């Protein structure tokens, strides 16, 4: 399947809302930011651009979902957390509203998470999204991505790991998930649906039992760094499809984070944070165009 995809990515300060209490080994604060760079692309606003706060839900256009998977359509009624560009909560709206490009173009932004699970062999668990998914069907991506229905990000990740991959909740306790940073990205899946999220990145190293829901996941696999690099190369040659957020993370931070899996936690977080800070300016103007 060939689809037009565009995505932009920027780093948000590593500290999250008070509701996501960081692990003890991840409590360092970011150094003060200098004046933000000016973004040249017309589809992206600098961090301090004038954005009108959304005081109420955006008006939902009339969109037919008759041709979509029934179970996935039911999930569109779930409520996502609406935020501004500084990740301040400003309300709530349905998953359907949050993923319509017509609303995204008006600035609708919501909170999300992406979790990466590595096994004891340092291999990363990937999933291929089912063909029933409304955004980016059939695309390979990281272990699990979704939205917190309330404010506890790690428990939301635990819930979705069970719902999508069938992982028993006792195998993925929230206190074993390490929060690394947040990214702000925007991506269009097709002419109707897309993503616009501030995405919390969580890491975990654990051997887990899997029983994926076929309505959510088409396939899954564990990959080494070299195997993932081969997949990324195939994606560039249109031999397989990868979600834009996973492609952006893999092209920027992922392998540096991966190299530090065996480092002591406090040093690992420091190295990761330093790396993110060094790439922050470049990422604010980072753009991928696809056809």
TrEMBL record:
Pathway annotation: Isoprenoid biosynthesis; dimethylallyl diphosphate biosynthesis; dimethylallyl diphosphate from isopentenyl diphosphate: step 1/1
Location of the region described as Disordered in the Swiss-Prot/TrEMBL record: 19-41
Cofactor annotation: Mg(2+)
All residue ranges annotated as the Nudix hydrolase domain in the record: 108-248
SUPFAM superfamilies found in the cross-reference section: Nudix (SSF55811)
GO CC, alphabetical: cytoplasm
PANTHER family, alphabetized: ISOPENTENYL-DIPHOSPHATE DELTA-ISOMERASE
Name this protein carries in UniProt: isopentenyl-diphosphate Delta-isomerase
Organism: Channa striata
Organism lineage: Eukaryota, Metazoa, Chordata, Craniata, Vertebrata
């Amino acid at each position: 399947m060939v689809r037009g995809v565009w995505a932009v990515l920027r780093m948000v300060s590593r500290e999250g809302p008070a509701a996501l209490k960081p692990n003890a080994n991840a409590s360092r604060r970011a150094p003060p930011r200098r004046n933000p760079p000016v973004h040249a692309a017309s589809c992206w606003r600098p961090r301090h651009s004038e954005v009108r706060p959304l005081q109420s839900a955006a008006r939902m256009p009339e969109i037919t979902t008759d041709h979509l998977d029934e179970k996935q359509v039911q999930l569109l009624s779930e409520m996502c957390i609406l935020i501004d560009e500084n990740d301040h909560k400003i309300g709530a709206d349905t998953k359907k509203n949050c993923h319509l490009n017509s609303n995204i173009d008006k600035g609708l932004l919501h909170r999300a998470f992406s979790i990466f699970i590595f096994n004891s062999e340092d291999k990363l668990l990937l999933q291929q999204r089912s063909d029933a998914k409304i955004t980016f069907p059939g695309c390979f991506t990281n272990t699990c991505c979704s939205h917190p229905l309330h404010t506890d990000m790690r428990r939301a990740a635990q819930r979705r790991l069970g719902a999508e991959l069938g992982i028993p909740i006792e195998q993925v306790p929230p206190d074993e998930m390490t929060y690394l940073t947040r990214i702000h990205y925007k991506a269009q899946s097709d002419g109707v649906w897309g993503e616009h999220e501030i995405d919390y990145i969580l890491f975990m190293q654990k051997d887990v039992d899997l029983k994926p829901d076929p309505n959510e996941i088409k396939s899954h696999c564990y990959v080494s760094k070299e195997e993932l690099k081969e997949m990324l190369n195939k994606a560039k040659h249109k031999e397989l499809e990868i979600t834009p957020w996973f492609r952006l993370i893999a092209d920027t931070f992922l392998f540096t984070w991966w190299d530090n899996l065996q480092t002591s936690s406090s040093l690992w977080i420091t190295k990761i944070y330093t790396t993110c800070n060094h790439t922050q300016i470049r990422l604010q103007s980072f753009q991928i165009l696809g056809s």
